[in-house]
């Protein structure tokens, strides 16, 4: 907007003899559209407050609709029907009346309701309508004429006519402007910069400096921005650290089938292993660095339970299958390595977590990608129970996601028994949503590692993408991660406050 319209507006207000000047008059006087004056007034309020004061009044006017003025000219539809019917007992066939025009149907109904006419259903050749009174007074037409002449009618009459779509009420708003407490015909020009020269010469004493605007938003910084997944990861990491967890090293995307599956007592014939779910590595295809003695114990446990007292899977177990290199399908592979290390180093109660990438050969859709991130926690101790896991998860999800209502559903994982899916009540979406998977690691997994018999280990996992998507209001994972991500989304994503999502 040019400043000149603002200047013109001020001059107009200055010269006017009225206290309160209608915006419509100003527009006419300045020969511009009313909307131009209206936006100039808005801008004055924002940029030069105090010069003028805007106010408005509103009043409503009732007008006849097209149908209303037709009835005012020709009579209400019911009166037209009455007048069309000849006097006498025979009346007029309903069919004939209806054929006379579109308004006759309403007219007949209204005339019947007013008892001006009556219907003879048994008349020869179909129902006939007869006059039922000698004279009528068309009060509807009378009222419509009153309204057209600007006279008032009762509320009930008005309501009835509105229902008949004969009249409509429009609210007219009128805007006014008057002089404000800091009115001046000319806009004061403030000094926006205080220069060393102004200070040295003392000239600053004669200047009026523009006041600071503490409400102004800062310009966005032209710097790099963290991806939302990284911000949410930091939130979860902090919560784990606050709860006494230490972070597991996750810097190996390539893993052996042994640590990803076999160490977890996942049978070699398990469907998740085949090429549909797992990415196999071609080169190097095999892993040479699996500890022999541990591998022998795992083999025995799979085949017949070994020393654990379990029956095992009672199928042959091959080293060849265990050595196959893959992209890890879950971070529980890392947990397995760390639990084995815990046994090797001499057991002590521990809490460990990881947040990193995993890979699955999935069909890509709005909620699945071939790579995503898992958040995982394990708690190992001597006096740990399933009740302890439930208690811990309640505490964790209240802290991490502000969810304090959880439900658990029995599930199956080869490496945990019992296993539970975790559902949380989302207060915003007002529904239960699946948030993770959990369980107590099986003795067939823990004992071959060399963990003492009385030690129990709890584990749980969830994806990092899901809470991040809920937080950002995204429903397609491809908008969050992968080659289709809009960099502006990364730029705009607010600093994360998960408890508010
Ligand atoms: N690995 C499981 C998953 O991929 C999560 C989980 C971790 C379950 C630890 C139980 C214990 O869904």
UniProtKB/TrEMBL annotation:
Statement: the UniProt record of this protein carries the keyword Protein biosynthesis: yes
Pfam family, one: PheRS_DBD3
Leading EC class: ligase
Subcellular location: Cytoplasm
Top-level taxon: Eukaryota
Keywords from the UniProt entry: Aminoacyl-tRNA synthetase, ATP-binding, Cytoplasm, Ligase, Magnesium, Metal-binding, Nucleotide-binding, Protein biosynthesis
InterPro entries reported for this sequence: aa-tRNA-synth_II, aa-tRNA-synth_II/BPL/LPL, Phe-tRNA-synth_IIc_asu, Phenylalanyl-tRNA_Synthase, PheRS_DBD3
Domain Aminoacyl-transfer RNA synthetases class-II family profile residues, every copy: 231-494
Cofactor(s), by name: Mg(2+)
Keyword Magnesium: yes
Enzyme Commission number(s) from the entry: 6.1.1.20
GO cellular component: cytosol; phenylalanine-tRNA ligase complex
GO BP term, pick one: phenylalanyl-tRNA aminoacylation
GO MF terms, alphabetically ordered: ATP binding; metal ion binding; phenylalanine-tRNA ligase activity; tRNA binding
Family under the similarity heading: Belongs to the class-II aminoacyl-tRNA synthetase family. Phe-tRNA synthetase alpha subunit type 2 subfamily.
Record-given protein name: phenylalanine--tRNA ligase
Organism classification: Eukaryota, Ichthyosporea, Ichthyophonida, Sphaeroforma
């Amino acid at each position: 907007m040019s400043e000149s319209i603002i200047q013109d507006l001020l001059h107009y207000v200055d010269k006017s003899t009225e206290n309160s000047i209608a915006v419509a008059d100003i527009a006419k006087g300045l020969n511009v559209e009313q909307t131009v004056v209206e936006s100039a007034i808005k801008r004055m309020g924002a940029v030069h407050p105090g010069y003028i004061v805007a106010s408005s009044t509103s009043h409503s006017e009732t007008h006849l609709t097209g149908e209303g003025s037709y009835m005012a000219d020709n009579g209400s539809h019911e009166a037209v029907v009455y007048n069309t019917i000849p006097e006498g007992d025979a009346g007029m066939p309903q069919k004939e009346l209806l054929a006379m025009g579109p308004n006759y149907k309403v007219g007949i109904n209204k005339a019947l309701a007013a008892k001006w006419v009556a219907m003879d259903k048994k008349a020869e050749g179909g129902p006939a309508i007869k006059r039922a009174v000698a004279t009528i007074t068309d009060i509807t037409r009378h009222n419509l004429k009153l309204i057209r002449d600007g006279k008032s009618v009762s509320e009930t009459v008005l309501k009835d006519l509105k229902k008949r779509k004969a009249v409509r009420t429009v609210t007219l708003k009128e805007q006014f402007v008057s002089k404000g407490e800091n009115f001046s015909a000319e806009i004061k020009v403030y000094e926006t910069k205080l220069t060393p020269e102004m200070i040295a010469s003392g000239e600053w004493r004669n200047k009026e400096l523009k006041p600071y605007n503490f409400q102004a938003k800062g310009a966005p910084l032209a710097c790099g921005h963290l991806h939302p997944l990284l911000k949410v990861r930091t939130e979860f990491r902090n919560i784990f650290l606050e709860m006494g967890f230490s972070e597991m090293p996750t810097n190996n995307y390539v893993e052996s089938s042994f640590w990803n599956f076999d160490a977890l007592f996942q049978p070699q014939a398990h469907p998740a292993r085949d090429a549909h779910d797992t990415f196999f590595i071609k080169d190097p295809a095999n892993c040479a660095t699996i500890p022999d003695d541990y591998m022998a114990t795992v083999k025995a446990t799979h085949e017949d339970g070994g020393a654990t007292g379990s029956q095992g899977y009672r199928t042959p177990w091959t080293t060849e299958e265990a050595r196959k290199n893959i992209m890890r399908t879950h971070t529980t592979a890392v947990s397995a390595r760390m639990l084995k290390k815990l046994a090797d180093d001499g057991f002590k109660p521990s809490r460990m977590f990881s947040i990193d990438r995993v890979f699955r050969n999935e069909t890509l859709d709005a909620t699945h990608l071939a790579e995503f991130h898992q958040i995982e926690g394990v708690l190992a101790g001597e006096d740990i129970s399933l009740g302890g896991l439930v208690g811990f998860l309640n505490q964790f999800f209240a802290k991490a996601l502000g969810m304090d209502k959880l439900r658990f559903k029995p599930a199956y994982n080869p490496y945990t028994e019992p296993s539970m899916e975790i559902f949380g009540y989302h207060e915003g979406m007002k529904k239960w949503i699946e948030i993770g998977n959990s369980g107590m690691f099986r003795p067939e997994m823990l004992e071959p590692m060399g963990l003492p018999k009385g030690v129990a280990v709890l584990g749980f996992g969830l994806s990092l993408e899901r809470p991040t998507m809920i937080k950002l209001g995204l429903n397609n994972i491809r908008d969050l991660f992968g080659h289709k991500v809009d960099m502006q989304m990364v730029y705009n994503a607010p600093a994360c406050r998960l408890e508010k999502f």
